[in-house]
Amino acid sequence: NAGVTQTPKFQVLKTGQSMTLQCAQDMNHEYMSWYRQDPGMGLRLIHYSVGAGITDQGEVPNGYNVSRSTTEDFPLRLLSAAPSQTSVYFCASSYGSKETQYFGPGTRLLVL
Amino acid sequence: GNSVTQMEGPVTLSEEAFLTINCTYTATGYPSLFWYVQYPGEGLQLLLKATKADDKGSNKGFEATYRKETTSFHLEKGSVQVSDSAVYFCARGGNTDKLIFGTGTRLQVFP
After folding, report:
1. Is the peptide bond before A8 cis (omega within 30 degrees of 0)?
2. Taking Cα atoms as reference points, which of B1, B2, B21 lies closest to residue B10?
3. What phi, psi does A28 have (nearest 5°)?
4. CA angle, corner B102, sides to B39 and A102, nearest 5?
């Protein structure tokens, strides 16, 4: 098993550009989520999904969109990047929010 | 609301010292509680967990007991090593389908 994979590892964007952060898992997990990690703020939940076709907002959803068309993939879209979205983004998956989360290696995003 | 509060760091200790990192939570119902660890340059990985009141999670010499009466899940280790230097996150998962993390506590252990 590859576990949870994320691409790209690092990305630089200009303000206003759009991009998609990819996340995939091969463990047949129903629950997937996106977090951002900022100094002094810990991990904050952006969006999550309890299964294919179902998504919901987390603590900081503004500026981000998600979709879950398959069990394996959970992409995170930035429609118009802002410097405030400079962060490290982690994707995670599990059998549920009460279960152990498996994290990807992270994507470091810099918005200029 | 539902939240997780953990002590601010950094926590600086000498090798073989006793470690406590406090964590308290608010939640309705009976959440599951977790400690995750992030080593430098890596993603998070599960350290230990507890799923019901009075459960004790343990791993690699670390322990935490689910205390419903004090809504706490403090992390302890009797004798820390330099290799334990990392950021530790307390987290709560449960009824609302959201897993919520604390802000993290950086531990630095010196020889």
Report:
1. yes
2. B21
3. 60, 35
4. 50
* pLDDT of B97: 65
Dump pLDDT digits (tens) for A51-63.
999 999 998 999 9
The half-sphere exposure of B49 on its side-chain side, counting CA atoms within 13 A, is 18
Host H or E run for residue A5: strand A4-7
Q: Please state, in angstroms and rounded to a whole number, the distance separating the CA atoms of residues A73 and A70.
A: 6
Whole-angstrom Cα distance, residue A68 to residue A24?
11
Q: Give the C-alpha separation, B34 to A101, whole Å.
A: 10
Q: Which of B99, B100, B101 is the best residue to mutate to test the A interface, defined by the most A CB atoms within 10 Å of its own CB?
A: B99
Give the tens place of pLDDT for each residue, A52-91.
999 999 989 999 999 999 999 999 999 999 999 999 999 9
Q: Does B10 sit behind a cis peptide bond, omega within 30 degrees of 0 on the bond before it?
A: yes
Interface residues from chain A to B (CB-CB < 8 Å): 31, 33, 35, 40-45, 48, 50, 56, 58-59, 90, 92, 96-101, 103-106
Tell me how far apart the alpha carbons of residues A19 and A64 are, in angstroms, rounded to a whole number.
10
Q: In chain B, what's the furthest Cα-to-Cα distance?
A: 43
The residue type of A26 is D
Cα-flanking dihedrals φ and ψ of residue B83, to 5°?
-70, -10
